Amino acid sequence: MGLSTSSILTAAANMAGDLRSSQTPYLKHLDIGSGHGELIELLRTQKQVVASKACDYTSDLMQLSDVDVHVADLNQQPLPFKDNTFDLVTCTEVVEHLEHYRETIREMYRVLKPSGVVVITTPNILNLKSRIRFFVFGFYNLFGPIHTRESALHSAGGHINPVSYFYLAHSMLDAGFDSIKLAIDKKQNTSLFWLIWFYLPIKFFAWITTRKEKSKYKTIDQHNEHHVIKINALATLTGRTIVVGGIKNADKFSPNPLHL
Length: 260
Hints:
8 helices; single chain
């Protein structure tokens, strides 16, 4: 989409490296929302990938002459690739632009080979700067108010879907991914300031609420508690962008694939 900064790209590349099962590079890589091709170029420089393909809503942004862009409107179309094609799928700063991001995540699962790796980034709506903005204004940081009938999909005006860490992790697990891992691109100074005032109250009331959710409402169990706890972890409270990676579970078939 052309919006990713160097720190986001570096964090995405680091996540891809952390989840790689061996020292050998990924043979086939797909970059969704490839923009100018910066992430592809970075992964090449790091010798993490052998061959990359790109997918975006337009081919006009790509600046790498040897990379063809497969054009697709992911709000209406599936990924234009066969099942079990790629070893690595990256998707930086895209899900917040999508009407049905869960369907696209199932598509990522479909086009990955068994034990393939996915890396997704999106603005962190749970950092303290964003939480304070929502408390006083009703909108998360980098989300709304947006113009009606907005067509600038590549800009913040196209941020229509605020997705928190928990729901992103949940959608990846639901699609069939395992080994979900969370990182951030960098700590945010404004969030660090608010952390001084709110960290202890957040941890205290989160502990009380978690106990109530577990004992009374039964919404938290051994399968999701790890991800619930992470929404109030230091990284989540202070990080500007979340970077979430996972590995395709070869034994699970992704339910309800997108066929339009």
